[in-house]
């Protein structure tokens, strides 16, 4: 006998697609999953890092109410839920909560890799198998279906599990409550419309569909206890040294009820290696008594949805040897700096002339004028910083060369310093005979040409440095110095 369903019509508007309808198949029912979960929970206390096969009850744990919707072909033909992973997992199958309006309605149960940007299925299914969906009461206990893939599927990136149909029979599916935003704004759920998959921009009536369907994967995985230095911490600095916990899966809310409740501190045990008491905290933090090397150990006891597993990790915290130091070599106004620092990972130079400085380990710099400059180098390694300042005295060893004049040839050059083009203007009694030559400060001829009153000389291919340009009208000579920077 065909079951009767209480039907409430709700309209779903999709951005960029035609209007479609979802039908609520029954009134909401209060969810007691979270309270019963903690009351009935029994852990296996597995001492290995393998967490065995764990069923992820993320959506039902967040549920205030259970909600029921119709998937109505051809406008809607499937639902999916996105799962983020930190490392390789194996998916064996999944639980879902659904009925069909006709008995033995064929659906496909699929797993896809996910488009991480929009959390929708990407490409073709990695695995797909058929399931015959029965009719039944629109009540959560009577809608539970258990599906198992013929062979477990190995996944190395975020994935989406789906149930889909091409049959014209309506499906009734369960989710948590969009009215109270049980989806937490993550938009893990997606719906397959006639235009394709969509995870955002959906409303139920006038309410955004911020909810998660009850698709609960059974996955096998291992945890890897791991942590690193906080990038702002340094043993040589005042205040606590901090660590960043990056243990796989444990910090992922979809894998951990305690991550949802922010009660993970008791899962981690820190031995900071300095004789201080064992600390229980998510991210380690310790004030060390002295500069030294310390072996830091973190143990993790992870309580997953259906079991538990353990792992530990060691990290050598070394006394910093960071020390800023450098040398310089000046050729006229061109100065080459060589980093001689110990353990530097980043560099910041101040050349003492109000320029922009440099972040290169071994920069070169052209000064505009001779004189005394205070050059500073600051180096960093993680949160440690070291600085040094050295005096740089640039002395003009070519005094008078740029003013050598024989006869009445007079030249003006601009801009100086330049970066690409040198503008030249000549005044001479013999303009038809004026030639010019550009020399390095070592005296090597680089460019030459001739001119009358004005010309532009392209110097960008010469490279940065200090140069001389000599003008000769056959009877008189003038030499000027210029800088390319």
Describe it.
The chain has 485 residues and is mostly beta strands. The protein folds into 4 domains: 8-221, no CATH class; 223-317, Immunoglobulins (Immunoglobulin-like); 326-394, Immunoglobulin-like (Sandwich), CATH 2.60.40; 401-484, Immunoglobulin-like (Sandwich). Helix content is 4%, strand content 49%. The strands form 10 sheets. Strands 3, 4, 5, 7, 10, 12 and 17 form a 7-stranded antiparallel β-sheet that branches. Strand 28 and strand 29 (384-394) form a beta hairpin. The protein is elongated. The termini are far apart. Residues 1-21 have low confidence and may be disordered.
Low-confidence sequence ranges: 1-21
Count of DSSP-assigned helices? 4
**Helix coverage percent:** under 10%
The radius of gyration computed from the alpha-carbon positions, rounded to a whole number of angstroms, is 36 Å
Instruction: Work out the oligomeric state of the chains in this entry.
Output: single chain
The fraction of residues assigned to DSSP E strands is over 45%
Query: What kind of sheet is the major sheet?
Result: 7 strands, antiparallel
N-to-C CA distance: 89 Å
Count structural domains: 4
Give the overall shape, derived from the CA principal axes: elongated
Total DSSP E strands:
37
Q: What structural class is derived from the secondary structure elements?
A: mainly beta
Mean pLDDT: 88
């Amino acid at each position: 006998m065909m079951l009767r369903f209480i039907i409430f019509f709700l309209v779903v508007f999709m951005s960029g697609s035609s209007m479609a309808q979802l039908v609520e198949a029954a009134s909401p029912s209060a969810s007691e999953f979270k309270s019963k979960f903690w009351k009935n929970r029994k852990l296996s206390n597995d001492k290995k890092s393998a967490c065995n096969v764990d069923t992820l009850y993320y959506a039902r744990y967040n549920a205030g109410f259970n909600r029921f919707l119709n998937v109505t072909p051809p406008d809607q033909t499937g639902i999916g839920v996105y799962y983020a992973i930190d490392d390789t997992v194996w998916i064996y199958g999944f639980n879902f909560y659904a009925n069909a309006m006709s008995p033995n309605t064929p659906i496909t149960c699929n797993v896809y890799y996910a488009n991480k940007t929009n959390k929708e299925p990407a490409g073709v299914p990695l695995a797909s198998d058929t399931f015959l969906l029965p009719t039944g009461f629109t009540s959560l206990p009577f809608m539970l279906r258990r599906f198992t893939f013929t062979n477990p599927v190995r996944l190395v990136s975020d994935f989406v599990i789906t149930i889909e149909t091409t049959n014209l029979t309506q499906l009734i599916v369960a989710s948590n409550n969009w009215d109270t935003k049980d989806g937490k704004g993550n938009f893990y759920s997606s719906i397959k419309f006639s235009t394709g998959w969509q995870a955002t921009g959906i409303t139920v009536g006038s309410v955004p569909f911020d909810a998660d369907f009850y698709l609960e994967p059974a996955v096998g995985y291992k945890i890897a206890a791991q942590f690193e230095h906080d990038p702002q911490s340094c043993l040589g600095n005042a205040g606590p040294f901090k660590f960043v916990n990056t243990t796989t899966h444990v910090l992922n809310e979809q894998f951990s009820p305690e991550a949802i409740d922010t009660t993970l501190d008791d899962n981690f045990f820190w031995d900071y290696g300095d004789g201080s008491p064992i600390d229980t905290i998510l991210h380690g933090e310790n004030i060390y008594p002295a500069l030294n090397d310390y072996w830091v150990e973190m143990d993790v006891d992870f309580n997953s949805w259906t079991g538990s597993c353990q792992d530990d990790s060691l990290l050598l915290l070394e006394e910093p040897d960071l020390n800023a130091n450098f040398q310089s070599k000046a050729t006229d106004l061109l100065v080459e700096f060589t980093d001689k620092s110990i353990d530097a990972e980043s560099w910041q130079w101040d050349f003492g002339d109000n320029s922009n400085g440099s972040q290169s380990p071994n920069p070169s710099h052209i000064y505009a004028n001779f004189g005394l400059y205070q050059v500073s180098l600051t180096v960093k390694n993680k949160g440690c910083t070291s600085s040094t300042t050295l005096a740089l005295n640039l002395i003009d060893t070519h005094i008078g060369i740029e003013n050598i004049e024989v006869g009445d040839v007079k030249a003006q050059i601009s801009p100086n310093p330049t970066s690409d083009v040198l503008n030249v203007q000549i005044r001479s009694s013999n303009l038809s005979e004026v030639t010019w030559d550009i020399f390095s400060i070592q005296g090597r001829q680089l460019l030459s040409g001739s001119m009358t009153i004005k010309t532009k000389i392209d110097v960008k291919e010469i490279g940065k440095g200090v140069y001389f340009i000599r003008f000769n009208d056959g009877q008189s000579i003038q030499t000027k110095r210029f800088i390319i920077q």
